[in-house]
Amino acid sequence: MVSRHSEKPIEGLSPITRRKLSDAVFDKLKHLIETGELKPGDEVPSERMLMESLQVGRPAVREAMQALASHGLIEISHGERSRVVPLTAKSLIKQVDIAAKMLLAGSPSNLEDLKAARLFFERGVVREAALKATSVDIEQLEAALRCQRAALGQPDAFIAADMAFHTQIARITRNSIFSAVSEAMLSWLQEFHIELLRRSGKEDITLSEHEDILEAIRSGDADLAEGALVRHLERSRDLYVTKT
Hints:
Number of helices: 11
Shape: elongated
Largest sheet: 2 strands, antiparallel
CATH superfamily of the largest domain: GntR ligand-binding domain-like
CATH architecture of the largest domain: Up-down Bundle
Number of strands: 2
Radius of gyration: 25 Å
Strand order of the largest sheet: 1-2
Strand content: under 5%
Structural class: mainly alpha
Distance between the termini: 74 Å
Order of helices and strands: HHHEEHHHHHHHH
CATH topology of the largest domain: Four Helix Bundle (Hemerythrin (Met), subunit A)
Number of domains: 2
């Protein structure tokens, strides 16, 4: 007779872990969203209905709802029923916005990594823009540049227009992920913009470099556009530093 103590463990058997009720509620609701039973714009069942249907208490429901909101799956509004939100590249990237800014603020090396990532990313974007730009795209890019020129002497407006110019280049690619990533990186960098751009002459240099980029995109020359962009971003790298 074989002793119980000599039995070999069976693969696949592992200790059963007790899950939090809120995690189970989260999974149930996430499944409804993933399968389309709850579609973008639909109201999420009320707290009372969820409590009765799932046989859980109010704290578990509320914790699950907060988790869904933090994952960008629903929107919670006071005084109204929560709703399922449409998932977009922009909404997904927005979920890491606060954490990204904290990460960048915590270390100069992280900010340097972001500058390098932006240069690598925008080199490809501007090449794509040069190959795809239509006459309408060029008109919109010209309008963005006019707005920036009109903002001379208004530092905050000038910086916002600078970001809008680069975002418009990303939109020309017709790639929603490119546009969302570009907008996010520019937003994160804006937190670390310093006074150098506001000194006399720096604005004119930026405008001149933007004009070069615009003309290169207009010509449809990807190499020329990439070169103009690289010169611009390499020159402006020092405009962003961590705050001490």
